[in-house]
Amino acid sequence: MREILLDCIIDCLKLLPFLYLSYLVVEYAEHKMSRKTKEMIYRAGKAGPVLGSLIGIIPQCGFSAAAAGLFAGGMVSPGTLLAVFLSTSDEMLPIMVSEGIQPSVIVKILGVKVVVATVVGLAADFAAERILGRRNEMPEHPDMCEHEHCGCGEHGIWYSALNHTLQTAVFLFLISLAIGFGMEWFGVSGASRGISKLPGAEAVLSGLVGMIPNCAASVLITQLFLEGILSSGALFAGLLCGAGTGLLVLYRENPDKKMNLAITAALYVSGTLAGMIVGQLGIL
Length: 284
Fold this sequence. Notes:
This protein is mainly alpha-helical. The protein contains 15 helices and no strands. Helix 12 (216-226) runs antiparallel to helix 13 (232-241).
């Protein structure tokens, strides 16, 4: 119990700088930028999925949380958010480095994640433009302070960003704590070991484990792969679907529930299918 509590506190503390900076950007855009300026920034982000996929591979789940906050504020596209989610590595990289895994293997894993994230992100933006029927037009996003009815916009962007950061940090801490105790109670590790006994379902179930909005999911999937319990396809499916705490921030900050569900579905389907395909190719 003490270990779970400590892990949740550390994870939330590591997220604070990323959350604060992302909220500061959103607050500045909402209160200081004109609609025209924001549209110019949004339209200039056509290469967003490429940049998002490269940023996501940095072993820090704070980037996925920050990307979700920026998306909720209308600063990045759905494809960019998906690219960050798909490429997010969380604890996979440091675990493999500490275990002495060959650099070539690590490079292949990161390379596949970047390619999949970029392709899916670009495809998502293309599809979003066609579905919305508004090419190069920034979608409407409600004012964050108005959405939360906190009135903090009256006190300046620095205070407002700090207020949102602390509220989100408390929310993430409580949810992460619940998930941590849930994983311990239900024995997710033991259940995951049974994945390999279900033919054809390994990648599907590994993807579901990866979707758990907690940095521990990537740790579990990586360790099971290193122990020879999961195949390479299941590894990729789990790591691609794992977006850390990004999904929690998305559902808390973005009021468009249909969009949130669409992004969640796209993350799981694309990550699982890509994992299956990569597994068949025998890249690892």
